[in-house]
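FORM 12-B: Structure-to-Sequence Request
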């Protein structure tokens, strides 16, 4: 089969939803209690639509109601005008306050029914609810159904039936009762609009669940990627570190007659490799997401108490390093600050070994009342020695700045006039409560990866 035959056809472009579908989606979108109808519609004309429709409906219903009461029921001009205004004008509230509008309209309709009991030509006409009352009431039910809860809608419907039943005790002779008609029609309108609102609520909850599920899928993907990176690191780095450890441990046996200084050097190499391998395995445990498992966080983190060992290992590597450590500094620092101080010294010494081998380096840790000052200063590299790395990736000082920022401290780095380099970190003696001040601008350096 050819490649053309195996290539799937491109998916057709998604159709733009029709205006009617967009409007129906707006209708189904539930409004909050203090919001007007269509308040969350995307377009301005859609948000104004309920006001325009209800205003036009009220403007048409008001004169019609007055004309029907005057001509058909002979209620008199004064009563007809008052009832027409009372029964129609409150409908304007239905857009923003439908429940309040329903209470006013039901009260006006009830008073109108009692007034029409003594009208001259009520016989042969609809009572207690006139045709105009039914039309306005159904429009009000539609607004209620789109806004209120199911419990409220059921209560409105039952109250409507109860008021109609109570008015039956005042029913004049010869009228066409409309109690059952309004009761049935209002129930149908409430059911339809309430169902539309319920559908919108359900779709909104589904969208929220889909958003949560998408977040969970993204988190699972991230964890899987972290586990994959951890496996790759373990396969590559752990293997080589283990080989270095075995070779350093077995060197005295493979090379008999080795001088004692050389033997001690191989022992130091093996110890450093084992320590690095242990730290890498702890980091891989966290990277796999198993930091909360047994042993995940039980191993102690390094701090200033191990700076002396770090300096001694650097000296054995041929780097002249002097250390000035304030008494009691290791016990006075919070855990996060203690770890950050150790890592800053570690990274600074690694940079010196890589970029300025043989340079005289001084490490100073000074304890003050509210902060600790970590200072690492090295001179220029010796002329007879070539730097192991001529360029850096920029990750060394970036990592230092991140650690200092997390503890709320400041970091100052830069070259010295004589060709050396200086790293100065000020760390507060308190638990980190958030990011510190802005980091100093980075200076050109020869930081390690």
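FORM 12-B RESPONSE
SEQUENCE OUT:
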């Amino acid at each position: 089969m050819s490649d053309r035959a195996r290539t799937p056809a491109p998916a057709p472009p998604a159709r733009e939803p029709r205006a009617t579908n967009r409007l129906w989606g707006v209708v189904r979108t539930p409004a909050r209690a203090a919001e007007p109808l269509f308040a969350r519609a995307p377009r301005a004309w859609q948000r104004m639509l309920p006001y325009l429709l209800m205003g036009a409906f009220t403007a048409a219903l008001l004169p019609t109601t007055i004309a029907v009461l005057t001509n058909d029921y002979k209620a008199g001009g004064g009563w007809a005008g008052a009832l027409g205004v009372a029964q129609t004008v409150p409908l304007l509230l239905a857009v923003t306050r439908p429940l309040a509008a329903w209470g006013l309209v039901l009260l006006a309709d009830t008073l109108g029914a009692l007034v029409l009991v003594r009208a001259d030509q009520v016989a042969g006409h609809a009572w207690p609810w006139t045709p105009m009352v039914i039309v306005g009431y159904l429009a009000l039910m539609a607004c209620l159904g789109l806004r209120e809860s199911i419990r409220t809608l059921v209560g409105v419907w039952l109250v409507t039936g109860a008021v109609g039943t109570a008015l039956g005790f005042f029913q004049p002779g010869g009228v066409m009762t409309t109690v059952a008609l309004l009761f049935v029609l209002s129930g149908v309108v409430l059911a339809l609009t309430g169902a539309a609102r319920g559908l919108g609520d359900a779709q909104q909850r589904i969208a929220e669940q889909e958003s949560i599920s998408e977040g969970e899928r993204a988190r699972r993907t991230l964890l899987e990627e972290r586990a994959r990176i951890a496996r790759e690191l373990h396969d590559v780095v752990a293997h080589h570190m283990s080989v270095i450890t075995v070779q350093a441990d077995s060197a005295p046996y493979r090379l008999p007659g080795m001088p004692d200084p050389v033997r001690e050097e191989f022992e130091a190499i093996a110890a450093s490799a084992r320590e690095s391998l242990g730290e890498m395995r702890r980091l891989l445990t966290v990277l796999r997401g198993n930091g909360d498992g047994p042993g995940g966080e039980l191993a102690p983190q390094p701090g200033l108490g191990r700076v002396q060992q770090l300096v001694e290992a650097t000296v054995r590597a041929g780097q002249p390093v002097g250390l000035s450590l304030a008494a009691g500094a290791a016990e006075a620092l919070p855990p996060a600050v203690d770890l950050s101080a150790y890592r800053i010294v570690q990274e600074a010494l690694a940079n010196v070994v890589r970029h300025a081998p043989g340079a005289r380096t001084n490490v100073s840790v000074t304890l003050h009342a509210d902060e600790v000052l970590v200072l690492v200063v090295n001179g220029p590299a010796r002329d007879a020695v070539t730097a192991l790395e001529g360029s850096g990736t920029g990750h060394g000082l970036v990592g230092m700045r991140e650690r200092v920022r997390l503890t709320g401290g400041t970091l100052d780095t830069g070259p010295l006039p004589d060709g050396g380099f200086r790293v100065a970190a000020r760390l507060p003696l308190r638990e980190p409560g958030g990011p510190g001040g802005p980091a100093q601008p980075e200076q050109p350096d020869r930081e390690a990866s």
